Amino acid sequence: MSGLKQDLSLAQGVGLLSTSLLGTGVFAVPALAAQVAGSDSLWAWPILMVLVFPIAIAFAALGRHFPSAGGAAHFVGMAFGQRMAKVTGWLFLSVIPVGLPAALQIASGFWQSAFGWSSNGLLLVQIATLVVIWGLGTRSAGSSANIQTLIAILVAALVVAIWWKGGITPAQIPWPAVSDISPPNLFHALAVMFWCFVGLEAFAHLATEFRNSERDFPRALLFGMLVAGAVYWGCTVAVLHFHAYGEDRAAAASLPGVVVQLFGEHALWIACVIGYLACFASVNIYTQSFARLVWSQAQARPASALAKLSANRVPVNALSTVVGCCLIFTLLIYTLDLPLDTLLVYANGIFVLVYLLCMLAGCRILQGRSRLMAVIGSILCLLLLVIIGWKSLYALVMLVLIWLVLPRKPQTVVKTL
């Protein structure tokens, strides 16, 4: 069913996933974690990696055995039928009105920090970002992978430069004794830090575009997660070492502040550009993933323009639709001046719910250890929904509404795309 160009290598896959996970969180989350848990956050990162590992293994197994551009919707459909696949697909697409504009806001904020641009200038940055993403999307996934691999290298190099210039050595890392760790602070930090590992579900949509999907997709997913975790931990060490956190400063300004402290005011724009590129990478992979989801859902109606591929074997029509919708909602949010934190809350609940649906699908269609990982992942996702509390209502309401609104006949459902 794919038809998509299969040109992704293992290294490119690692670059795509690591930048997707780093994305909007790499500059802000280490400071937020340090603010709520202090040096305990150094333990929180490896603990979080252990907790996310079952979810990652389950996603890797699903992508390896059932590769599809439909990603999460395809997995859920295999387990619970095509109607539930449509519901999951539309649930994931419901992130577009809130999640992508929020990420664009965060990305453009780095331009404000570096150059002091006004809100009108930042809107132009967001529009230009969408145009560049559309241009990348008209080429194969390998083009995005090459750029995002370079971005991952730049982010890692920035962290290495901070450690080198700051004289940070392993002996200076303030590891707290296990007996001194505060469980409430640790749990609070884990709840904040989980959002750094939202991106696995988007990566699943690219499973069919690897040269050797069965071998390289699961490896890229796991290696990419480890790379992102190592960078996040390195950022946390730097933030703690320079005490670059606190309620009196913006979390996203923590690492740029350290860069200025070490290299001078002239280096601020370098940190901000790298921060923007990390956000760009995250928005890019989600936009490309949404396009592939729309294309895969339209396959049941081959005559649809959304079901067509370009000469480069990429879903340009679906991509244009996704980018167009994102542009409309970006302009609407700018006009209404909606707060960023509200947008993020709505998007995060949907991500966790999509994760949960995928884990439940894994419980049904996977075997052996992979099924056990899916069971553990389901429990973790349920706990996360509890932690989110009332903030997850948007996702749950969207799930119910989509279920009620979509017609019951699969062929009719496809015609709504």
Automatic annotation (TrEMBL):
Keywords: Cell membrane, Membrane, Transmembrane, Transmembrane helix
Membrane topology label: Multi-pass membrane protein
Main location: membrane
Subcellular location: Cell membrane
TM annotation in the entry: 43-66, 87-111, 117-137, 149-166, 186-208, 220-246, 266-286, 316-336, 342-363, 375-406
GO terms for MF: transmembrane transporter activity
Protein name: Transporter
